[in-house]
Design a protein that fits this description.
Low-confidence stretches of chain A: 256-267
Largest interface: A-B, 43 and 42 residues
Strand content of chain B: under 5%
Strand order of the largest sheet of chain A: 6-7-8-3-9-10
Radius of gyration of chain B: 26 Å
Helix content of chain A: 40-55%
CATH topology of the largest domain in chain B: MetI-like fold
Largest sheet of chain B: 2 strands, antiparallel
Number of strands of chain A: 16
Structural class of chain B: mainly alpha
Oligomer: heterodimer
Mean pLDDT of chain B: 80
Shape of chain B: globular
Radius of gyration of chain A: 24 Å
Number of helices of chain A: 15
Strand order of the largest sheet of chain B: 1-2
Largest sheet of chain A: 6 strands, mixed
CATH class of the largest domain in chain B: Mainly Alpha
Chain lengths: ~425, ~575
């Protein structure tokens, strides 16, 4: 018997207007179904629109095009039966644990006795007994997120939306909370029928989900769907688990046919969003890879595990290395290039020279800024000159981030200078 | 697993306890205060004129009660204004375009100029009764309290964290519930601080609002303000002394009975997730929390309250989504309407003024404005030179701050009018130049904003930064230049903006001073408005107010705001 369908998402598109009048596409052509009894993971790097999709499902925003249907009805605002757990908990600091949990029930206009009874039951279920009258600021991060879970569960939602619920917690706390949640889920003690989990942690996705949708970036788009058929409880060390993780790394680093690659930027245009990665981090990863046991070539999941880096920590550095042609990324591996190996062996001054060369050759924005500065009589240019240019192609946040990234790299490379007080670029470094 | 500790969500037993004794005393005290203060408001005006104000100290409790009640009614009005006006401005984009600049201007318009124009209106509401004059006085006090409260609330509403808003929406809180459960709690700590500031600031205007004279009608409402005005008129120094003493008691009382409990209670609304180090405490709050009698009194209200949250219309309905193009057109049209309205208002003012006055009068007012401007600039400079070092010294020593803060708060509430006798006598006997020696009165009440803010800024310097200074042996001028001054600069600018705006307002009171029949006057825009008010010359009142508002707005836009933005960008810690 096929399981009943909770959510039906069809051809959803989300675009935001840009200052110059055009539209910036964030999500493109998303299809997603959620059946009863399923945990579906949305996996991707930041900027892939997965959180935006979650907000669309929650009714916190409306899609530009496409349908989101919940139990046969289109979602036109926050729907009863869909509850959300937030990344940074979103607890009301002026309400006690009990009051926070009761809030959603009060909004449902239930009789007071039922509000209280259901809230206490939820607190009991999620392991918060004894903390009823505590304020959120008195709790540890893990306990706070438990309140977040209890608050979402007591309204007895059919669908639970989770927006990176464990990413603000330390590794041990996150693991405990994940396992507690999965135990309750497997024992069918949760009043929910389906879960959508947004995450950028590959292992977390494999540990928790029945299906994983892999998102690409700019615009967000589903590049592949991975079914996880492992029995629960799952073991991270089991070979089949490792294979799945490895496979996801491979599909995230492989340039897929016919669509924008997940990681590799193919365009050599000025208006490419640059990852905000410091030169120190770049040097650090190169040195680690050059040394034993990697000797210039590393398996991404292995190096991620040994450095305790999640997808959102590791991929930006890998992307930066790839952009600067200091390393190549593909098929779940990262390899140092000839320049990368030279870099690892050089002294600081030579490193800077090499970095400058790579920067001006392979990052078009850096070359562009330098060229403009050279052409101008006084060798200076205001920040707004480049910001406006970038904003035509990306959101203002992305434009600012890109400028900050190129400034940081140029400073390390001594390619050009930037004065934050006067907000001007110049060729001269202070002497 | 059951917890070992008892859960404190059990209903508290409502038996009679010792806290109740204090609680009952407080409640009865409140009732007596209300009865005392609100007596006679319905009697005819003529009655008031027949029983002139008495300077006997025995009357002071009654006068103090009346003035305080007026101030609290004005504060309640200000809260109502804040909750409606600021909410509308924060939630509605189109309303914001109009309301926020309007608030900015209202804040800059000299409050005392309002009084004469509004009195006529309020008196006509309840002809021949004291109540009309009471309304006028309360409204005048309201205008000295409301604007900064509304601004603070507006700014808080605009900075409610997105996650909280999304949580509230996803749990489908009704707008009414969202307002009371999310918006108000988030804004409360800042709002309470501004309420305290407003109360302090409004003492300054109580004198002007209770002794209302427009042209040849003078109404003296019984209260502290009229008492002080009469004491000055009759040259009674003892009475002035009594007035100061009474004020001190009143300020202490409402600090202990109202603001301290409020601050202690509002501590839980601070948004920081960390537990605070020093939790503010209040004995009154303890009484209220622990008394069974008060708990019983509170219960019907809190039930009604929860009922209202439950009954409010739901906010879950689908929102209509209009096309972006159409929205843009409506925005444009709305912007056009606002522009036309502003132009019309300006034209009306100009036409009114020019129908009674010539362009030379306008030029005179502007020249006088520059005279007052010079005074304000010099005074702010002097006050900064004194209070910045003092503030840094106090702020870096938490023990000293504990002593200095409440004293400064009292001084901020101290109406400059009480110092007039000293000033006038000194100027007349020593034959001093009033253009110079009256000026300090302008900054008497407002300089404290600089001190408050600098103390707060110095206290916020991370101890690590101070340690590093010590570690590198940074002393003396270098320490001031590189550590202390940059760290307090953004705070100083905030304080100086308030102080400068306040000084402009105060100039209306401070550029003309009298002691009995003796009267000294400085030449300035403040004296100009004060004279026009006394003479009932509406043309000059409007002209003076318009010129002063223009001065304040231009200075704020051209000088303070850029400085503030610069300070925010360059010296922001963290």
């Amino acid at each position: 018997m096929p399981a009943a369908r909770l959510l039906d998402i069809h051809s959803v598109r989300q675009a935001f207007p840009k200052p110059d009048g055009g539209d910036l596409l964030v999500l493109d052509d998303i299809d997603l179904e959620l059946a009863e009894g399923e945990i579906v993971g949305l996996l991707g790097r930041s900027g892939s629109g997965k959180s935006t999709l979650l907000r669309l499902i929650a009714g916190l925003a409306r899609p530009t095009a496409g349908d989101i249907v919940y139990l046969g009805r289109p979602v036109a605002g926050p729907a009863p039966g869909i509850a959300m757990v937030f990344q940074n908990f979103a607890l009301f600091p002026w309400l006690t644990v009990l009051e926070n949990v009761q809030l959603g029930l009060e909004a449902l206009r239930l009789p007071e006795s039922e509000v209280r009874q259901r809230a206490l039951a939820g607190i009991d279920l999620i392991g918060l007994d004894g903390y009823e009258s505590a304020y959120p600021r008195e709790l540890s991060g893990g306990m706070r997120q438990r309140v977040g879970f209890a608050r979402a569960l007591v309204v007895h939602p059919n669908v639970l939306l989770m927006d990176e619920p464990f990413s603000a917690l330390d590794i041990l706390t996150a693991e405990t909370l994940r396992n507690d949640f999965l135990d309750l889920w497997s024992e069918r003690r949760l009043p929910i029928k389906g879960v959508i989990l947004v995450t950028h942690n590959i292992e977390e996705a494999v540990l928790m989900c029945d299906r994983i949708l892999l998102f690409s970036r700019n615009p967000g788009h589903v590049i592949s769907e991975i079914r996880v058929d492992l029995p629960r409880p799952r073991n991270r060390l089991e070979p089949r688990f490792r294979d799945l993780v490895e496979g996801i790394y491979v599909s995230m680093t492989a340039p897929p046919v016919g669509s924008t690659p997940a990681l590799v930027p193919s365009e050599r245009r000025v208006e490419v969003i640059l990852p905000r990665v410091s030169a120190n981090l770049i040097s650090g990863l190169i040195e680690t890879m050059a040394g034993a046991p990697y000797n210039g070539k590393a398996d991404l999941p292995v190096i991620a595990g040994s450095l305790h880096m999640e997808v959102d920590d590791l991929f930006p550095v890998a992307e930066a290395l790839q952009m600067l042609r200091l390393a190549e990324v593909g098929e779940g591996d990262i390899r140092l290039t000839h320049a990368g190996k030279q870099f690892s062996e050089a002294e600081l001054d030579d490193r800077k020279k090499l970095f400058q060369h790579q920067l001006l050759c392979y990052v078009p924005l850096a070359a562009h800024i330098r060229r403009v500065l050279q052409e101008r009589a006084n060798h200076t240019a205001p920040r707004s000159r480049f910001l406006d240019e970038l904003e035509d192609h990306m959101t203002i946040e992305a434009a600012e981030q890109t400028l900050r990234a190129v400034i940081a790299w140029a400073r390390f490379a001594e390619a050009f200078a930037y004065d934050d007080e006067t907000q001007t670029f110049s060729l001269e470094n202070p002497t | 697993m059951r917890p070992l500790l008892p859960i404190s969500v059990e209903r508290r037993a409502l038996g009679f306890n010792s806290w109740d004794v204090i609680a009952i005393v407080l409640v009865v005290g409140l009732v007596v205060f209300l009865a005392e203060a609100s007596r006679d408001v319905l009697q005819p005006l003529a009655e008031l004129q027949r029983t002139p104000l008495s300077l006997a100290p025995a009357h002071l409790p009654e006068y103090a009660a009346r003035t305080t009640l007026r101030m609290f009614l004005a504060l309640a009005l200000s809260l109502l204004f804040t909750f409606t006006y600021a909410t509308l401005a924060a939630k509605n984009k189109r309303a914001r375009v109009l309301l926020i600049p309007l608030l900015d201007i209202l804040q800059s318009v000299p409050i005392l100029g309002f009084i004469s124009t509004t009195v006529v209106f309020f008196m006509s509401l309840v002809p021949g009764r004291v109540l009309g004059a009471e309304f006028a006085a309360i409204f005048a006090i309201f205008t000295s309290q409301a604007w900064n409260m509304a601004f603070s609330f507006y700014q808080s509403l605009r900075t409610v964290p997105t996650e909280l808003i999304e949580a509230s929406r996803s749990f489908r809180l009704s707008p009414w519930m969202h307002f009371w459960r999310v918006d108000v709690p988030f804004a409360l700590p800042q709002l309470i601080w501004n309420m305290m500031m407003s109360m302090s600031g409004s003492w300054f205007f109580v004198v002007a609002s209770e002794a209302i004279s427009v042209g040849n009608t003078t109404v003296m409402l019984p209260g502290m303000g009229s008492y002080i005005a009469t004491a000055i008129e009759q040259r009674d120094l003892t009475a002035v002394g009594w007035a100061i003493g009474t004020m001190l008691v009143v300020i202490l009382l409402y600090d202990q009975l109202l603001f301290r409990p409020l601050v202690a209670w509002a501590d839980r609304f601070r948004f920081e997730q960390q537990a605070s180090i020093a939790v503010p405490a209040s004995w009154v709050l303890d009484v209220i929390r622990r008394s069974g009698v008060i708990a019983r009194l509170r219960r019907p209200f809190s039930m009604l309250w929860r009922h209202s949250l439950r009954m409010a219309p739901s906010g879950a309905g689908p929102r209509s989504v209009r096309s972006l193009d159409r929205q843009r057109w409506v925005d444009l049209a709305w912007g056009g309407i606002v522009l036309v309205l502003v132009a019309l208002a300006l034209w009306q003012v100009a036409r009114f003024v020019l129908s009674g006055l010539s362009l030379t009068d306008v030029g005179e007012a502007i020249l006088l404005g520059f005279a007052t401007l010079t005074r304000v600039v010099i005074l702010i400079a002097i006050a900064s030179a004194i209070w910045v070092p003092v503030g840094v010294w106090v702020g870096t020593r938490p023990r000293a701050a504990l002593v200095v803060q409440p004293v400064a708060q009292f001084l901020a509430a101290f109406p400059a009018n009480l110092l007039f006798p000293v000033a006038v006598v000194a100027i007349v006997t020593l034959k001093l130049n009033p253009d110079i020696w009256l000026s300090p009165l302008m900054i008497l009440g407002t300089q404290w904003y600089i001190l408050f803010n600098v103390i707060a800024g110095a206290a916020a310097i991370p101890s690590e930064l101070r340690d590093v200074g010590t570690n590198l042996q940074v002393h003396g001028p270098l320490w001031w230049r590189k550590v202390a001054l940059p760290a307090v600069f953004p705070y100083y600018v905030t304080g100086a903006i308030t102080a400068s705006g306040g000084s402009w307002n105060a100039s209306i009171v401070a550029e003309v001073a009298s002691w009995g029949d003796e009267r000294v006057q400085a030449s300035g825009l403040g004296a100009y408005i004060a004279r026009a008010t006394e003479g009932g010359d509406f043309y000059r009142i409007v002209l003076g107010i318009a010129v002063m508002s223009a001065f304040v707005v231009v200075i704020n836009r051209a000088f303070w705001r850029p400085l503030y933005l610069y300070a925010e960008r360059k010296y922001r810690l963290g």
